Amino acid sequence: MNTATFSIAAVERDTGLSKDVLRMWERRYGFPVPSRDNNGERCYPAEQVDRLRQIKRLMDLGHRPGKLIATPEAELGALTSRRSKPVTPDISADEDELGELLTLIKQHDAAAYQQAMQQRLARQGLQRFVQDTVAPLTRLVGDNWENGSFEVFEEHLYTELTKRLLRQAIATLPGGPRGPRVLLTSVPEEQHILGLLMVEALFALEGAECIPLGTQMPLLEIGRAAQAHQADIVALSFSQAFPPRQIPGLLQQLRQVLPANTALWAGGSGVTRIGKTSDAELITTLDDALRALAAWRGQHT
Amino acid sequence: MNTATFSIAAVERDTGLSKDVLRMWERRYGFPVPSRDNNGERCYPAEQVDRLRQIKRLMDLGHRPGKLIATPEAELGALTSRRSKPVTPDISADEDELGELLTLIKQHDAAAYQQAMQQRLARQGLQRFVQDTVAPLTRLVGDNWENGSFEVFEEHLYTELTKRLLRQAIATLPGGPRGPRVLLTSVPEEQHILGLLMVEALFALEGAECIPLGTQMPLLEIGRAAQAHQADIVALSFSQAFPPRQIPGLLQQLRQVLPANTALWAGGSGVTRIGKTSDAELITTLDDALRALAAWRGQHT
DNA sequence: ACGTCCTATTTGTCTAGGACAAAACAAGTA
DNA sequence: TACTTGTTTTGTCCTAGACAAATAGGACGT
Questions:
Q1: Is B23 in CB contact (< 8 Å) with chain A?
Q2: Paired residues of A235 in beta bridges
Q3: Residue B86 reports pLDDT greater than 90
Q4: N or C end of chain A, less CB within 10 A?
């Protein structure tokens, strides 16, 4: 059925591996080995594309491509867990309930999931809902995705439905005009925004004025936006998959584009892998975010 | 102030012009001409990045790079309008009201905009709100963005706020289990989703079962999702800026990955620029979408 | 004047291999 | 254990050439 082949551009789109990397791997490791069309251009079979996506997934987990490619096909379930073991240590009471929510997603039952979450939101209130339900649930989904028991589209479904819940909840909050003006966005190439939404929910609860600009803002535009909105804080999010190499340079450039009195906060699991920097405040947990907000308020009378 | 320089990767991220294109333009047209760092790598000044983004904007409008680069700097306001003239012919009565909404965005007054839109939604009902407010407003924003009177971040703000409104409205609709199961998403590289949300709103009103998967689904994953959800229809959206060259091949590949009895619909302003194809049904307006839905229902008893 | 076919130019993407720096690892030492 | 140093791995960037798809311009016929 899958007789279709993929051009190198299509593979780049679908796997997130750059053309350069694909060619380099072919040169160095002898994989992937696409066939060629009449023009001598690479044609990747669907099978190799799948393997590449799998490799990419494990790489985002911290594995190295050389090893992964060497491993024939037993890697599938074998290399699954590694970093994710130490996390989720306690919360055993809630664990089961969260598992149920996850099951609903795995059954692709959007309606039931939404209803269950709505119920939870009503019961816990927004703050605890974010901290005790959405955050751990997202971590669980991440773990499941990493070890392959979640398909990509299932993760997308989870993300989309949960985003809607959070946005809806945020919309119902009264707009408290006190506190700092926070501009929330992400840099180009970074499309994940769930974490930013969680932060927005918490900040909005605290009465901060949140300005959500969606994802993928060019750096210079972030600068302009900060100026136009007179933002006190620019909050960025970097996901696990974002190339860590690029982050420090990115923050440095951004720092130069921003007004001096505008704070720059960078959060998300992507920033845990980079070293300290003076260009931005690194925020790794939701509690960190709340602490940072409180600290900011302390400093600005 | 802007002494920062951009690596070629940063420019690619910020402008959407590929590294290949940037190097090729330098070779052919002599622009941009970045300086080099100690390693002989390109360093683009912020000024050139801005010009590049401007050129990209005009290219998405249909202009050609050769001409644009030749034009010194008078191009700015001059080449602004071209394709967008014939649209928005009548609706002069509403025109002013829409203009007011636009003004709120330009003043960066998120709260007032949301309130005004909520009011409009309550007055018009969701269907007319989508067709008579959101759709023309989005077109207006597009026009304003194209001719440069909207900043990128203003367009982002509009998009984000409007997405929230639509999602919120959709969430309040009762889930009617009749009608086809429609899977809504976009291919990788395509991040715009507003049009898809409008369609979702209209379809949900018609009682169709909509499954929103967010943006940027790898092709093979779309196939899996369609199978898992037993989707009757896969609806994709392509924006103006999406490289038209890639669309036919994309649809062809997708067609091969999808079950034969799953319909493939492609919409958005991106598809107006491509020729007919047997791989997918092309949908260029919201009315088209509703017609297509009615037709589907007619064919499936 | 309008549409159609054909040719020429424009433009993007692909290919090849070489070079190098940053990150990750390994090993040796305090 | 904690640091420093050297080695391997890995990604990105470079140049320069080739080609095909899209577009524009012109000739032709209606």
A1: no
A2: A184, A265
A3: no
A4: C
CATH architecture designation of domain A5-78: Orthogonal Bundle (1.10)
Burial class of residue B172, CB neighbours in 10 A (0-12, 13-18, 19+): exposed
Question: Which residue of chain A is at minimal alpha-carbon distance from B210?
Answer: A110
Q: Where in chain B is the domain with CATH 3.40.50.280?
A: 181-299
Nearest nucleotide by C1' from A62 CA?
C24
pTM of the model: 0.90
Q: Residues 3-62 of chain A: which lie with beta carbon within 7 Å of strand C?
A: 7-9, 19, 23-24, 27, 36, 40-42
Distance in angstroms (rounded) separating the CA atoms of residues A149 and B55: 44
How far is B138 from B194, CA to CA, in rounded Å? 9
Q: How many CB atoms lie within 10 A of CB A54?
A: 17
Q: Tens digit of pLDDT for each residue in B217-252?
A: 999 999 999 999 999 999 999 988 888 888 888 898
What type of residue sits at position B173? L
The CATH superfamily holding the domain A92-171 is Methionine synthase domain (1.10.1240.10)
Pairing state between β A42-45 and A35-36:
antiparallel
CB contact at 8 A, A233 and A225: no
- pLDDT score at B94: 64
User: CATH 1.10.1660.10: which residues of chain B?
Assistant: 5-78
Q: How far is CA A141 from CA A133, A151, A162, B14, in A?
A: 12, 10, 12, 30
Cβ pair B9:A246 closer than 8 A: yes
Phi and psi angles of residue A237, each rounded to the nearest 5 degrees, phi first: -125, 135
Question: Nearest CA to B253 among B239, B268, B264?
Answer: B264
List CB contacts of A155: < 8 A, sequence separation 6 or more.
Answer: A141, A145
Residues A132 and B185: their CA atoms lie apart, in Å, by 29
Task: Tell whether B228 lies on the interface with A, counting CB pairs under 8 A.
Answer: yes
- What would the pLDDT profile of B169-218 be if each residue is shown by its tens digit? 998 887 667 789 999 999 988 989 999 999 999 999 999 999 999 999 99
Q: Of B89, B281, B99, whose CA–CA distance to B182 is shortest? A: B281
Residue ranges matching CATH 1.10.1240.10 in chain A: 92-171
Q: Which of B48-62, B89-103, B105-119 has the lowest mean pLDDT?
A: B89-103
Q: Which residues of chain A have pLDDT under 50?
A: 82-91
**Beta bridge pairs of residue A35:** A43
Q: Is the CB of B34 under 7 A from strand C?
A: no
| Structural contact between residues A85 and A44, judged by C-beta atoms closer than 8 angstroms | no
Mean pLDDT across chain B, nearest whole number?
88
Q: How many CB atoms lie within 10 A of CB B38?
A: 5
Instruction: Give the separation between CA B136 and CA B268, rounded to whole angstroms.
Output: 14
A290 in Cβ contact with A172 (< 8 Å):
no
In the predicted model, is pLDDT for residue B76 greater than 90? no
Q: Does domain A181-299 have CATH number 3.40.50.720?
A: no
